[in-house]
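Summary for the steering committee. The consortium agreed at its last meeting that each partner would contribute one worked example illustrating the joint modelling workflow. Our contribution is presented below. We chose a case with several input lines so that the handling of multiple components could be demonstrated. No manual editing was applied between input and output; the record is shown as generated.
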Amino acid sequence: MTRFFQFIGDLTLFGSQAVARFFKPPFELHEIWSQIAEAGSRSFPLVAASGFALGVVMTLHTRSTLVMFGAGAMIPRVQSLAFFIEIGPLVAGLLVAGRVGAGIGAVLANMRATEQIDAIEALSIDSFKLLVVPRIVACVIALPLLTVFMDFSGLIGGFCSEYALSHLSLRLYVTRAFTDLQWSNFVPPTLKTSVFGFIIGTVSAFFGFTTNEGADGVGRAATNSVVISSLVIILADVILVKLIFLVFPENAI
Amino acid sequence: MNETNKFAVVLDHVSKSFGNRQVLCDLSLSVTPGQALCILGRSGTGKSVTLKLMIALLRPDAGQIRIAGNNIAELEGEQLSHVRRKMGFLFQSAALFDSLTLHDNLALPLHRLTNKSKPEIEEAVDRVLGQVGLASDKNKMPVELSGGMKKRAGLARALVLEPELLLVDEPSSGLDRITSSEIDDLLLEQKTREKTTMVIVTHDARGARRVGDRFAVLDEGHLLAFGTIEELDQHGNTIVRKLIAE
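What follows is the complete predicted structure of the assembly.
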């Protein structure tokens, strides 16, 4: 139990340090940009393909039930609401935790094991500022963008599935999907993924940066990054959804 | 001249433990500016830990480590950075940044820590790579380099900021005799030409005899012997004589 609380304390301190150091020069813009490119561009195919497949599957599942109740026309609306409000943000968060989180954990742990982080410090360069802060910032920025791609890939998948089954036109699908969709259904859930990004970046960088187990630590850091990030994302989602309901009560209905 | 001025190194009753394991016990030694100290000892006797303490990658449990008069163990932030900028460190594994080319490995500290223009940085990188015989390999990634080339590249990166104190961890480990002799030549040249103060951790008595001015022998965290090669050749302890024997 003591170890658990120590871990929570260390992780919180690590995250707070990252926030504090972000606002101090040098701002590492070049490094942040390259990390966004790394996290964003390499995750894009995974996110787009998963979103498309989920869109197809969701339509297949919801169709039979909605048609049974004579509500087949609501399929696009259900699809868009489900993706924009919850499926897109959460699944994008979990996918990025797997793809990017594991990468950050493994890369930093490998740099620690091969003394590259010590070498950066020995050159009197702030290794935390150079390696940790840009990765966290990149996750915070990249995840909302990837979530938008996830949402629209899901809608495209849903449309393809619906078109194959009922030959519904694209224009009608889009009209039905976006009727009654409020900005509050789209903006807060998308922005909450920045928090997911912060969690992924912080947890993964923490495991990678603080490991001292040599080569064994690399695999462990990658695994822990994914498992703990995913778990914290799901727990944070509960809190964030409640917060969104507090600020936008109409979303709770 | 005050011994603690310039880039003299003084370790004063330094101890370091990891958990229950005491790695260094009450270690005291010093290096005068422009001289090379070679630290010899069996594996796991705290030689590399001593080097990492000198550049504050580790902090001692007790004692002082004075680099150019500053107790580096107590420095933080900008003050520590200021002292480290005058130091170079060649790691045992070379520790090249594996996502950067050889050129970028050397250019990184110049970009970040100096006001040099791009052409000046190019000139400095080319010059140092030329000194270590890697001028034609500057666009290679570390993974494309042999063990000896990595060591030379690590040395080039340690020298690119023109350090006054060079810390070298096992320059000959994993290298054949000819290649390790080439590394020794480079260290010797640096010491002779630039008057760089050096602390070299090594198992290679032959190389140590070529480069070193003074020698320290560690065993189980204790300083067994400290002096010139002539003094150590006459030392009463068998371990000391075995370690410095060619």
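The first strand of chain B starts at residue 9 and ends at 18. The domain at 9-100+165-244 of chain B is CATH 3.40.50.300 (Rossmann fold).
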